[in-house]
Amino acid sequence: MKVDTIITLANNKNYLLLLEDDLMDEDYFLSVLLDSNDEPTDEYAVLKEIKKNGDTYIQKINNPVILSQLLEDYKIQYEEDNENN
Questions:
Q1: Residues 50, 69: Cα–Cα separation, whole Å
Q2: Beta carbons of 30 and 21 less than 8 angstroms apart
Q3: Which of the chain's ends, N or C, has fewer CB atoms near its CB within 10 Å?
Q4: How far apart, in Å, are the Cα atoms of 16 and each of 4, 24, 49?
Q5: Residue 8: partners with Cβ closer than 8 Å, 6 or more residues away
Q6: How far is the C-alpha of 69 from the C-alpha of 26, rounded, in Å?
Q7: Which 3 state secondary structure label does DSSP give 69?
Q8: Which segments of the chain are extended strands (E)?
Q9: pLDDT (tens digit per residue) in 24-65
Q10: In 3-state terms, what secondary structure has residue 78?
Q11: In sequence order, what are the beta bridge partners of 55?
């Protein structure tokens, strides 16, 4: 999975991947739910990438601590990008 791509979960909802982060030796993505017009909503989700037997799976995680860390990392990245432009 790559940042800035849209993925569809098993529930047929589309998410835009905003940030990839390695926390506690696991790969997590900060994502935003897209509406029916593929426009971002105000609903964010943490997605965990699981690699098993050569396959990649995505699991939605409900962990406020991880979400908080990803949002903080995204904010830092956003501020750094703005400083460089």
A1: 19
A2: yes
A3: C
A4: 6, 23, 14
A5: 14, 15
A6: 13
A7: helix
A8: 6-8, 14-23, 26-34, 40-52, 55-61
A9: 788 999 999 999 999 999 999 999 999 899 999 999 999 888
A10: helix
A11: 52
User: Are the C-beta atoms of residues 46 and 29 closer than 8 Å to each other?
Assistant: yes
Q: Residue type at 75?
A: K
Which amino acid is located at 42 in the chain?
D
CA atoms within 13 A of residue 58's CA, in its CB half-sphere: 21
Angle at 14 between CA 44 and CA 35, to 5 degrees: 75
pTM for the predicted model, two decimal places:
0.83
30, exposed or middle or buried, with CB in 10 Å at 0-12, 13-18, 19+? buried
